[in-house]
Amino acid sequence: MKAVAFAADRHRNQRRKGADASPYINHPIEVANVLANEGEIADAIVLCAAVLHDTIEDTKTTADELAALFGPEVTAVVQEVTDDKSLEKHVRKQRQIEHAPHLSTEAKLVKLADKICNLRDMLASPPADWPVERKQAYFDWAAKVVAGVRGVHPGLEAVFNQLLARHAELR
Ligand code: ZN
User: How high is the pLDDT of residue 170?
Assistant: First the structure.
């Protein structure tokens, strides 16, 4: 709950990109919810890292701050799933594909649940200004990232596959 309170504070002025512009914090809470209730994961390191996964990337939060509050293990997982924002977007996206197979098990789980939530959001409330090609490219990219974490959790991978299939049906 300390992680939830911290993330809620850091993301307090942010909204999701979807047409419904939901509060940003809904997303990290949902990532942790997928892990806990669909993945049946009870590891506090994984669940805290899930709640905090976008704090370094998308807010002014530093790794030192997280380490002081949540310890080195949670912080290491968050750092593993944090994109280097000094790189151009297409480079960052390529890096995610390349790095996925080398992530720790904990980071792979967070990455997988993050992509599940993003695809669900994309199906339920896609960004209003995204043409169909851009949405398609997003699904294709997410599939490539998840290909790199396969084997980490067959149940959650099956959930991800179902979302890809739903998207393909809707095309
Ligand atoms: Zn995320």
Answer: 82
Residue type, 13: N
For 128, which DSSP code?
A: T
d(CA 92, CA 130): 20
Ligand 1 centre and the CA of 52: distance in Å?
A: 9
Domain count along the chain? 1
**171 Cα to the center of ligand 1, angstroms:** 25
Q: Model confidence over 67-122: pLDDT tens digits?
A: 999 999 999 999 999 999 999 999 999 999 999 999 999 999 999 999 999 999 99
Q: What is the CATH number of the domain that holds 31?
A: 1.10.3210.10
Full residue range of the structural domain in which residue 61 is found: 2-170
Residue by residue, DSSP assigns 66-119 as: HHHHHHHHHHHHHHHT---TTS-HHHHHHHHHHHGGGS-HHHHHHHHHHHHHHH
Dihedral sign (CA 126, 114, 25, 66) = negative
Give the helix/strand (H/E) hosting 143.
helix 132-147
Rounded distance, CA 155 to CA 87, Å? 33
